[in-house]
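Reviewers asked in the last cycle whether our approach scales beyond single polypeptides. To address this, we selected a multi-component target totalling 920 residues and predicted its structure end to end. The input consisted of the following lines:
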Amino acid sequence: MTWATGLLAPDQPWAPLLVATPLAAALAAVPFGRRAPLLLVALTPFSGALAVLAIAQVWSHGEIVYHVGGWPPPLGITLRIDGLSAVFIATTALVATGVALFSLPKYGRQSKGETRAAFAFWPLLFAMWAGLNAVFVSNDLFNLYVALELLTLTAVALVALDGKPKTIAAAIRYLLFALTGSLAYLLGVIFLYGVFGSLDISALAISASPHAVVLAAGVVMTTGLLAKTALFPLHGWLPPAHSGAPAPASAMLSALVVKASFFIILRLWFTALPMAASAAFLQLLASLGAVAIVFGSVLALRQNKLKLIVAYSTVAQLGYLFLMFPLAGGGNEMQSWAASAWTGGVFQALAHATAKAAMFLAVGAMIEAAGEDRLDRLTGIAHGVPVAVFAFGLASLSLMGLPPSGGFIAKYLLLTSALASGQWWWAAVMIAGGLLAAAYLFRPLSRALAEADPKLFTPVPRLQQFIPLALAALSVLLGIFSAQPYALLQIGRVPGASEGLP
Amino acid sequence: MTSALLFAFSGVAVIAIGLFGLIGRWRIERRVIAFNLVGSGMFLLFGAVAARRAGVDADPVPQAMIITGIVVAFSATALFVALIERLVAETGRSTLPEDTPDEDA
Amino acid sequence: MTPVLFDAGLCVLILGVALASVIVREAFAAIAFFIVYGLLVAIAWTRLDAVDVALAEVAIGAGLTGALFVGAMSRIAQAAEAQAAPRRHPERLAVVGALLLCGGAGAALIFTVLQLPEVAVSLASLAEANLALTGVTNKVTAVLINFRGYDTLLESVVLLVALIGVWSATPDRFWGGPPGLQLAMTQDSVLGFFGAILPPVGFVVGAYLIWIGSSAPGGAFQGGTVWAAMLLLAVLAGLIDPPLVSKRSLRFGLVLGPALFLAIGIAGIFRGSFLGLDPPIAKTLTLAIEVGLAVSIAATLALLVIGKPRRAA
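The resulting structure, written as structure tokens, was:
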């Protein structure tokens, strides 16, 4: 079919359209906020089609490069889609669509005139989506800075949406951390420009050398990005912010926004400056990740409010992501376990994104039914919102790392890489993390499944229960159908081993 | 020592001064001023570093980036200030509560 | 006086004022020092041959930010008066520790700056070479609207998002009301006088800045900020009421700039590339984008300084 090959040609503008489409929706939502459902109906097929086209384009042509305005670097800004971008773009499309549909009952119907929250929610959500895609397709470090600021402001505004004093304080703390992170990132960008005269990631990949300034710039940028990704010890802002935000916003934040800064860290150390990464630095990153796993899980065990449990779980699960650095990088690129570690880490990000989004939305439905999220008020909630509780349980499979979920595949890949490379201590941490996750997720689940009178709970629309189920199912499907995503992820990797462990 | 280098050092010094203002346990509204100083110092550093590289002709790309940065910094400051005002209106204090999020069972 | 000596003196002033704005006790004094700092930095930008940046710094960095702070501080002081927080004097040791930390960071940064290679290669020549295709002669405008227009597009959305965030920080009961405080101002006062005379003049100055931005320092941000300042002046003088946040035409005005930019960008796809400006019509397109942006920037910046709705409709 020649028209199909034409659609997938490397010069097709799917990359910029991936950003332009949600941007257009965000701009339209400002004057036309009351037509939000209509906007969503228009947006969803477009964004879905674009995501599919982008994946197909990468699958058939490999890495796609697009010069915005026709200006090649270093003068202009370049967009790049490789396997890594493609999977993140797809996950974003799925999660954001789910979140938007979930939010229709609460923010979509404005019968009594416009309300403040309904006005603000849609432009912020769509702008966040645009910012996420902008991060995933960008190949320019300053462009990434602007996209990060867009993400930060939309995220902070969404956290503060319900207006309670504790939530406002949480939003301010988030803003403090995020702005400091942005400034640290900018400092690194300044030095990289000072050395290379270009901020194009591909150009840096070619000309970068293990110069002291380059390493210093990389470390400073990473520190800033770690603050945005809430890696221990810079995680303090996350639990209050993600638990204080409205449920759909929490889903976007935990699932996607923290992954965007992580994505940039990956780009930095695996594409732009791989030779500058010292083994000690990578071990340090992974060590912080290991501490995050244990620390976050233990704190999750101590919480009495469900949203806080889920938020601390995010802190813990993000720790797994950093275990991939010493396993897949730092001179390991050609080893047979590098591909497994790389894929395992990214799978963890994707599985966590879908599972955590499902979890927060399910918790949102539970709060609608019970009125609040304190554990003792949620006894027997399974009789009120059975589908939502089932979704919560299904998502827990992925977080615990049980087969056949995506989380299982991710942890399996990371585990085998750790053992194959002789860094067995990471394997021990992962096993401990899995056990702890089972513990802190079992507590609310067992409570939810207890006996209770269904009439105690407010009925919740079907839509709001089935969306988390769909997302949780996705996290399981990722595990079952993992071969294609695995192959997709290898496209565009800086030359290294692409065959994984059996 | 060229002018550009002088301004680069000044930029660094302003960053350090702003950092000092951030760390000190000031109220949040003073921290916002400190944030702006750090950002402004960084832009100055950027411009000076770029000027050092450029020689005779001024390099327009960093200048455009700095203008973008100034606008973005203002946007963040405005949001910051609005949130602080709301916090003060609700709680009467302009310091973040130091207690942990799970203070009530 | 040699140029370097002048610059050295300027730097000393800049550092002194910056330090003062951090150390001084009273909030209003800190803001005053901060505004002066902004003005001095603008002079530094002209010394670095970055006049567009100087204009942006003095207008946004010093002027609007200062106005924002002054308005905020007065409201925060009003509210915080009710609860007298105990004055916390930081311990000697903590201050010394902070000084050492910041001094160390500064030293590390200076060391890094000195490590930078002394290469005299920049993008200026590349920009110069492609300038003819952009239809403008101001290189910074070419970068902002043409070469790296994508950044500017995103940035204009960042501004809008900030405004939405500011508006949504208002309590529910005030939603729909006019932004800002109610001012009682008579026409006879000094502010009323200048509020009547200056805005028309400022409007022309702003329009000129936008127009001239294609060949001399200026452009959408600089001109748009002057417009914003005139809007603010008129509102402060009580001559115009800030529009209700729910007003449709206001919302269209806010999205006009980014929407026009985005539309031109998408149209560019059919002629070659997203945000590609066809060289024959590049100058017209650039001007159109800049005017659109300036309108939205003016409205957004003014509303950001005015703040969120503080009384019911």
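Chain C is about 70% helix and 0% strand. We regard this as preliminary and will revisit it once experimental data from Aim 1 are available.
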